Amino acid sequence: MTANEDVLAAVGPRLRALRQQHGTTLAALSEVTGVSVSTLSRLESGQRRATLELLLPLARAYRVPLDELVGAPATGDPRIYARPIKHRSGQTIIPLSRQASGLQSFKILIPAGPPQEPDPQTHEGYEWLYVLAGHLRIVLGEHDLVLPPGEAAEFDTRVPHWFGSATGEAVELLTIFGPQGERMHVRARPTKKSP
Question: Is the separation of the CB atoms in 155 and 127 below 8 Å?
Answer without folding.
Answer: yes
